[in-house]
Specification:
globular; hypothetical protein yedk fold; 181 residues; alpha+beta; 12 strands
Length: 181
């Protein structure tokens, strides 16, 4: 995942109903076709609770970089217990590299089920979120454009398991995830 996604829907009450939220997401987080790191995003912090938070966690110890994505296989129990959230979206971008060296990269927008809203699995540190990523599991022979364009894909949570992800603590360090592509 390269660091851009969409939440193009402007119907906050519809999102609230779809994800069982008490209030709709903040208007500033809706109707966006290019959500960038460090911007405010809609995140479900717990059952029925949505908040506008920054995309990017606090830098680690002496590091200056702000993590925006976390590899699911590297997410330790310590990270998982800080806070699991859902980041609302309706698409994400991957960039296909040109074969010619120095050629422009071509953006592709991926959606799920015709563009309906869904949720990325994420981690929350009290200030910002990081989206969990996983390695696409398709074999090279059957690999789609998404698999060829990036070695990582956002971890998407099916609607039925989304509330469980945000409201429970993990039993182990392992993260069961479903590849997006």
């Amino acid at each position: 995942m390269c660091g851009r996604y969409t939440l193009s829907t402007v119907d906050g009450p519809d999102l609230a109903q779809r994800f069982g939220l008490l209030d709709p997401p903040a208007e500033e987080t809706l109707g966006r076709f290019n959500v960038c790191p460090t911007e405010t995003v809609a995140a479900v912090l717990g059952p029925g609770e949505v908040a506008a938070v920054r995309w990017g966690m606090r830098p680690f110890s002496k590091s200056k970089w702000t993590p925006i994505n976390v590899r699911s296989e590297n997410a330790s129990r310590r990270w998982m217990e800080r806070g699991r959230v859902l980041v609302l979206a309706d698409g994400w971008y991957e960039w296909l590299k040109q074969e010619a060296k120095g050629g422009a990269r071509i953006p592709f927008r991926y959606t799920v089920d015709g563009g309906v809203p869904f949720a990325f699995a994420g981690l929350y540190d009290g200030e910002g979120v990081a989206i969990m990523t996983t390695t696409p599991t398709r074999s090279p022979r059957r690999c789609t454009t998404a698999c060829r364009s990036s070695s990582r894909a956002p971890t998407r949570k099916p609607l039925g398991s989304a509330a469980t992800w945000a409201s429970t603590r993990p039993r182990s360090c392992c993260v069961r995830s479903r590849p997006s592509a």
